[in-house]
Specification:
Number of strands: 19
Largest sheet: 6 strands, mixed
GO molecular function, one term: metal ion binding
CATH superfamily of the largest domain: Hemocyanin, C-terminal domain
Keywords: Disulfide bond, Metal-binding, Secreted
Number of domains: 3
Number of helices: 20
Oligomer: single chain
InterPro entries: Di-copper_centre_dom_sf (IPR008922), Hemocyanin/hexamerin (IPR013788), Hemocyanin/hexamerin_mid_dom (IPR000896), Hemocyanin_C (IPR005203), Hemocyanin_C_sf (IPR037020), Ig_E-set (IPR014756), Tyrosinase_Cu-bd (IPR002227)
Protein name: Tyrosinase copper-binding domain-containing protein
Shape: globular
Radius of gyration: 26 Å
CATH class of the largest domain: Mainly Beta
Strand order of the largest sheet: 9-8-19-16-13-14
GO cellular component, one term: extracellular region
Distance between the termini: 43 Å
Amino acid sequence: MVAITVNKDKIKLLQNYIDAILTNGDHERIKERKRLKNGQKPPPRWNPFKYNQQQIVIELGVEYMQILLSAKNDDEKIDLFFKVADKVQAQLNDVTTYDPNLVNDAFVILINNHPAAVAWGLKTPSLKRISPINLLPGQTLPLDGPESRIDWWREDPSLNESHQHSHSIFVPNGIADANFPNKNFTYTKDRQGEIFIWSHKQMLARYDAERVAVGLDPVVPLKNYYDPIPEGYLPNKYLRDYNEKTSLSDLQNKFDYRLPYSSIVKEDGALIDFAVTAINKAIDDGLFYNDPEKLGLTINPDRYDPDILEDNEWREKFGRLHASGHIMFANIVGNKQLKDALKSNAPEGVILNFSTSCKDPLFYRWHRFIDEIFNRCIEKSKVRIFTDAPNVFIKSSDIVLAFKDQLLKVNPEGEKDRWQKYGEKNFGKPNFPFTNELQTRMMPRNLKGPNNEIVQIEQLFPREFYYFFKVKNNTKKDLYDAKTGNIIKVPAEQHITLRVFIVPEILAHDRKQWIELDKFKYTLKGDEYAVISRACELSSVIRKPAQKVFDDTPDYDISNDYCSCGWPYHLLLPRGTREGMKFKLFVFISDWNVDKTPGSTTEGSLSTCGRKIENGKPAKYPDSRNLGYPFDRPYANNSLLSTFAKQQDLKSVNTSSTDFPRAESNDPEDYWLDNVAMRDVTIKWVDEF
């Protein structure tokens, strides 16, 4: 990590300047922003999926980094950051060369990824400050169609902001090296291709959990993309407020609608056809066997090699499937007359922007199609045999849940150690306030639109809860006994990783539908029967710290967030149903000594913060297992039970795809591996906690 030796007051001044640039706010160093005048030719509209524009972002990043490279110490570097910010201002005013959104993205990528900016705690403003109208809700078309039942989830502001932020960290086509800025040599984050696939797979699993809760089928992949697309989308009125007389500057932030049963431009489909054919052939040829990272980079071709010549060869061989799809679908517009009139300046669909694409139901159908290609490759892999599992024991009754407010009632002082001592003393006793039902509720939030208009939405929140896991350590090590001269077995310490997943019971037969809730390290003492307390707000998958309330004051941002890459806390749990929806909660314990990444200093939760820097470079992903482990390979015999059964018992087990042990019966658990447990849990959507 770069040492923080610069003056904190100067850092604060720089942060204020960054905020003003990205929010077009008032600042003494900022003059009135220039706008396109009649007769001036506008720059190409910013399209984050177009390769040539991604290259311009890289080139701007190289310019910024070359300025910073001349600093001899941290104090000089902070002064040069001001110089970079001045250059960004000049580029924003070069209205005929750059779309302002392109320049903003290049600047955001610099702030979010440069080692010095990360070390000094520099941040980019929230989306509600940069582009608040992007957060205001639109609607699925037709307005009264079945897809409208989950508009609330797709339109969630934090969901869309999380997606936008992740793409400024895991950047398509890579980021220039701060120590060797060159547009022809860039890098992507460790395992970025695999992270791309996994993060979208998890988004789909969460989306499907909400779909089945409201009576919809899991999302259907858009295989026949030449056919009319039933789902349409109508952006909010501010995003689609334009006409032939709208200024070119204002058109840069507008989007068009898509009517139900619209079709793609057939010529656009050729790029998709090429990529799908090439990738499927490579899968059949075994090129990606047991290599999700390489396959992920093919579907979303960031730099597999830092050499641009290698990258071009890779792209020419496999195309740009993911990006080409977004471009193709954004080209379907409802206002065709205006598009013809405005030509290349015409707004396109919201699926073309990272901060709005998750609003469109087509986004999920497209990503399901991509995920099915990935899954086709994985299904050719060998099933997991868990021979490296630690010698520990857990069963379904060793997983207990409790609401935080109930724990506060029985033991107010327990909050200091997160009820660890209380759990150790009272686990399994009648007075323990356990629950078999988790709860969620919808809470109102007021978003501010233009002219101080208030738009009220509802967002999902969980009732805060704790897990308590009871784990027996049976690990032994060899020890020389001086008295007898023999080698004896004695209890040994064991570092473990607890991996927690949840799935709607109706979807448990599909390994792709398991939602990761948490993943963290714990150390068991020799021969210990440990009780482990874990708060839901510490989940490895969420933004840190957990954002439990929203302050929509225009200039307010969370000041103490230390990892903004994660999933929104308030969407940690699926909503469930009014009656209570059945889920399976699954715990898999692996050996941390196998899981840990060589050379990594990361401790605690085994999940990544894309901004984390180690030794001046982006940190390695802190879990050596494939993302999604142990659900990263096909089920044995297409059965959950067979997959996690003790090998010697497999022949005597009924292995149908829907057959799995149930928590109310202990007998089937005899078939489980000792390091695996699963229990029933209900999630109920209520009005009040």
